[in-house]
Design a protein that fits this description.
Length: about 290
């Protein structure tokens, strides 16, 4: 009888012991280890949520494909090669559609922060013994990975619009898209960190995202624009994400210029990196003030 009781107790306490052991292992991690573990866990959570949602994957591809194969085919005969000489409008539009996919996926990935706030999960994360920077970084890296995965699926349509995409170009594209996605997600986190309801976030994103997209040169060439529109486009940080992607795919033709000089591609990449770092720092600061 005693032996049976002891065996039963040992079996019942096994999950508790396992949890205690895990807690001790996590507790023994240094500060860097805890923060790195947090980033990895939040990244994993974002990826699992995305991969389990087939509707989200399909709807994320629907709008870019609609623009590419409906708008591109419809306006192609009208625009001809006035976008870039010798390049069809669909080929010209393809880099813009990639950035569009990245923008919308990255921005609306940040909406889960508002959901987490409403359901109390955000509060649990904020009271954890880890830095706010690791929480924000994990969210940014996870959401950016989702956006790049979505954009990578669109790369498969490149042959359908007569865009030659080699292995080198593909890797360069993925790197550029990752930088842009990280910057956009960080901006989305800044907005989401101050929102209390999902509806408010959606309204703000609709007001902000569409003008940034239209002014970026994603849908039409920036050459020959009125002065005020040209200035607005060059003040738009997304412009410096679209142009490198287009230059990787289509070459230097139609590249962004300042005072008649083609802007170096490393300068455009630097703008995106600085934007991402600034938005990440601001998001971390705002998270530190969150309740």
């Amino acid at each position: 009888m005693t032996t049976g009781t002891a065996g039963t107790t040992g079996t019942a306490d096994a999950p508790t012991a396992a949890k205690t052991g895990t807690a001790l292992v996590v507790g023994r991690r240094g500060r860097f280890g805890r923060n790195a573990f947090t980033v990895a866990m939040i990244w994993r959570r974002e990826m699992v949520r995305f991969l389990r949602s087939r509707v989200r994957i399909i709807t994320g591809l629907a709008q870019p494909v609609l623009f590419l194969f409906v708008l591109g085919v419809g306006l192609g005969p009208v625009i001809g090669d006035r976008g870039i000489e010798g390049v069809s409008y669909q080929a010209f539009l393809f880099p813009g559609v990639l950035v569009m996919s990245i923008m919308f996926t990255a921005m609306f990935s940040a909406i889960s922060i508002v959901w987490d706030r409403e359901f109390g999960f955000l509060r649990e994360m904020l009271v954890a013994p880890v830095s706010r920077a690791s929480l924000v970084l994990g969210k940014a890296v996870g959401s950016a990975s989702i956006a790049v995965l979505q954009g990578t699926l669109l790369l498969l349509t490149a042959p359908l619009v007569d865009v030659d995409l080699g292995i080198g170009e593909a890797f360069a594209m993925i790197g550029l898209l990752m930088l842009l996605a990280f910057a956009i997600v960080s901006f989305g986190i800044v907005v989401a960190s101050r929102m209390q309801r999902v509806e408010s976030f959606q309204v703000v994103m609709g007001v902000v995202v569409n003008p940034m997209l239209f002014l970026s040169g994603a849908l039409f060439p920036l050459q020959g624009l009125p002065d005020w529109l040209s200035v607005a486009s060059k003040l738009n940080p997304i412009t410096y994400g679209v142009d490198p992607v287009r230059r990787v795919l289509l070459g230097e033709r139609g590249a962004l210029t300042w005072n008649g000089e083609v802007l170096p591609i490393w300068t455009e990449i630097l703008v995106v990196v600085v934007l991402g770092a600034a938005m990440l720092a601001l998001a971390t600061r705002l998270f530190s003030r969150s309740d």
